[in-house]
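Format notes (please read before filing issues)

Several people have asked whether sequences and structure tokens are stored in separate files. They are not. Every record keeps both together, in the order shown below: the sequence lines, then the token lines. Line labels are part of the format and must not be stripped during preprocessing.
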Amino acid sequence: MNNISDKKYKIIYADPPWSYYNDSDSYFSKTTKVGVRKPPYDVLGSDSIKKLPVGEIADDDCFLFIWTTDYHLDKCIEVIKEWGFKYKTIGFAWQKLNKKGEPVCFTGAYTLKSGIELCLLATKGEVGSKSVINKKVRALINSPREFHSKKPDVVRNRIVELLGDIPRIELFARKRIKGWDVWGNEVPEENKWWD
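Then the structure lines:
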């Protein structure tokens, strides 16, 4: 897709590459932490994420589903506002499971982590319960962890079940997905729509 800025989307699904420990675009630029695991992708600080012109591709009436961790919750709310959306609720809660199918629970860098990641739901314009076509879609997802930061594929399916087959895009995508426009530096032949 060469120029997605010409399209407007009713659904934007995003999994920003949040920077841990220093909230900067350079993972280790302001930290000397020993043993900190660098993710296998480039990260962005919250200021850079906020500056992405997501409003340019959002339809006047649009849903935003955006992944965050407990550590980035306040920053995610700021991103939502900067992108022109209003936080509504938690869209999905992913309980990560280990290979045995048991919930993952571990101690993280700053807090006791529950092994749960959140996908927040925000809206722009005139959307609401009338936009929902299937009120039986569940928010809780029990799914095994796969590779670093990959979210369960079922989330995309549930978004479509909830809202229907309407124009949608996944930001920070890692691969092409049938029925979705995608943008991300890991997707072959993609580019930045704001260049």
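For reference, the curators noted about this record: Residues 38 and 54 are 27 Å apart (CA to CA). Helices lie at 46-51, 73-82, 154-163.
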